[in-house]
Amino acid sequence: MAGEWWEKEPLRFACQSGCVKCCLSPGVIFFDEEDIEKASAYLKAHPRQFKADHLVRENGEWMIDVSEVKRCPFLAADGCKIHAAKPKQCQTYPFWRENIESKRNWKAAGMFCPGVNAGPEVPAKTVRESLEKDRKAPDIFSF
């Protein structure tokens, strides 16, 4: 990915305390087997029970479908109940390919997320690693 615009103009991001806007947005949260193992261990649940209690399977993918009326089951008043074991998709926000494919998209992400363009510069290596972690996420998450 050499030569990406964000390698020449470093991105800034700092998750803002108390903000859960990204958790409230309608969309799909994907869990791969590694995410399931990590989250179920964190909750001290068997992976099979974790899947039965929290996930649905569509087209071979495990997921949570979040809508205006159906919140993420892990979102509590004080934040994410599985923050330390959240899935890669949540870990990598806002560095999803659709948010950083152009300056315009990054600016649009900033209109939604108060952490975009706040805080310290994020090294390009970190952005690349986030893109690699979240490479399976579909293009339905753009703002």
What can you see in these coordinates?
With 143 residues, the chain is of the alpha+beta class. It has one domain. Helices cover 38% and strands 20% of the residues. It is built from 8 helices and 7 strands. Strands 2-4-3 form a 3-stranded antiparallel β-sheet. Strands 1-7 form a two-stranded antiparallel sheet. Strand 3 and strand 4 form a beta hairpin. The radius of gyration is 15 Å and the shape is globular. The C terminus is likely disordered.
Q: Could you give a quick summary of the protein structure above?
A:
The chain is α+β, with helices and mostly antiparallel strands and 143 residues long.
Taken together, the total number of domains comes to 1
Total count of helical runs of at least 4 residues: 8
Largest sheet: 3 strands, antiparallel
Radius of gyration: 15 Å
Q: Any idea what the shape is?
A: globular
How far is the N terminus from the C terminus?
23 Å
Structural class: alpha+beta
The H/E string reads HEHEHHEEEEHHHEH
Strands across the major sheet, in which order?
2-4-3
How many strand units?
Answer: 7
Query: Beta-strand level of the residues, as a percent range?
Result: 15-25%
What low-confidence regions span 5 or more consecutive residues with pLDDT below 50? 138-143
Oligomer state equals single chain
The percent of residues in helical segments reads 25-40%
Report mean pLDDT, rounded to a whole number. Answer: 90
